[in-house]
Every structure is written in structure tokens, then in C-alpha cells.
Amino acid sequence: MDSYNSSPHRRKVRLSEFDYSQPGANFVTIVTQERKKLFGEVVDGEMILNEVGSMVKEVWEVIPDHSPNVDLGVFVVMPNHVHGIINITEMEATHASPLPRVSKGPIPGSIGAIIGSFKSATSKRIRGLDNNHRKRLWQRNYYEHVIRNERDHQAIYDYILANPINWEKDEENTYT
Q: How far apart are the C-alpha atoms of 85 and 149, rounded to whole Å?
């Protein structure tokens, strides 16, 4: 920690030289705050969504409506996390002589911007549900993996689809 900030330094998890707004496929995992099981339960290897889980699924499915440069791949909502593949299909248009970037936030159209928008929209909607005043829905940050080839894509695709079946063995299942 430094004298100007009371929070610990966070390890960077993104590749500093990689442009996360460029076309390509990315595997993402987003986890609930304190890994709380908020989205339903797995019964006999099948994820049964509750109202909050259904809302999270709905918000995920409309990502391309808000980010036209995105196609979604396979996706699953689990009791305390979500997994999905996001395909960025093209670069968003930029101005011929762009203004210098002053924001420290994610680059528009990037994986960071897409995930930030998803997390914001789901958090806002969950606060609107009856009797739900949860302060934070999601943990800070998210896990991402750039999918580099077809073999990598197939392994991730299979992993996502098998997640409910493997829930009993999943380390995420040890949380409340």
C-alpha cells in the first residue's frame, strides 16, 4: 500500500501490449461478490436459474444490441459466476483525427468496456428487484483468456457446456 491509497496494489491481469478491442474471441468469467450463490442452483447436472439468474442471462443475451461489433458464443450462468465467449467481429469506427484519450476507463468496444457495461446493467437491474438492496453484485475485475486457435476454442466451449454437470467437483461450489 502507498501513503496516498488505503487499498493494496492490485496485480495487473491483462496483457499490457494486447489490444482488447481487436477482432477475436475471448473467454470470460465473472464472479459474484464474495462468491455468493445468487443465480439459482444446479440440480442433477442442470442449472436451474432463479429470478436473478434469469435477469443475468437476459442482460448477457442483449450485449450485441448495445455492442454491434460483438457476437456471443456459448454462455452459462452458474450459481455464483458466469462463463461466456465474446467474439469481437470488427474494430469500432474511430475518428480520422482522434482526440487524445483522457479517460482511464476501458477502450470503447473492448472486452473491458463490454464486461463493464454488462456488470453495470445487471447491478442496476438487481437493485430494482423487490426487496433487493445488495451493495455489490460482482467482484471487482473478471477473468479473461484470449482464444488463440480452434483447439483452444473447442476446449473452452466444452468446458462451459460441462460446467453444470461438473458443479459438484467445482471449487466455486465450496462458497455459500
A: 13
